[in-house]
Every structure is written in C-alpha cells, then in structure tokens.
C-alpha cells in the first residue's frame, strides 16, 4: 500500500481537521497563492513558518533580479 504521508493539522478552536485549499494570502507586501491547510468551519488558514520563509525568500530573489 502506498499512501502518501500527510500531516494532519487540527484547528485549535474548532477541533476539526484542516483541509488543503488553494488560498490567497498576504504576508508583508507580498501576496501568495498556495495550497494551505484551512479550517472548514472558521476559515482560519494555517501557515507554517517554513512555508512563509520559503515563499518570501523566493519572492525577494525575484525582486532583486529585476
Ligand atoms: Zn476552526
């Protein structure tokens, strides 16, 4: 059986499992569109620091190259 390992994240408020959803979100002056875990009840998106750092680095690199 090959089931891809997936992280299960739960909303701290609603105690329901977050679902992956393509979401627009803003961080500082950047806007990202990325699949992030979102609570289906309250709509809270969970952004890992890792993901944010990665995206910011990516964008800053593009910024400098222009
Ligand atoms: Zn929630």
From TrEMBL:
Query: Which Pfam families does this entry report, sorted A to Z?
Result: DUF7479
- Can you give the residue ranges of the DUF7479 domain? 8-66
**Full protein name:** DUF7479 domain-containing protein
Native organism is Hominibacterium faecale
Q: Organism classification, top ranks?
A: Bacteria, Bacillati, Bacillota, Clostridia, Peptostreptococcales
């Amino acid at each position: 059986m090959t089931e891809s390992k997936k992280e299960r994240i739960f909303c701290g408020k609603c105690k329901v499992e977050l679902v992956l959803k393509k979401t627009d979100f803003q961080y500082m002056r950047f806007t990202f569109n990325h699949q992030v875990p979102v609570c289906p009840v309250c709509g809270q998106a969970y952004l890992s620091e890792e993901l944010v750092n990665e995206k910011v680095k990516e964008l800053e690199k593009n910024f400098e190259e222009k």
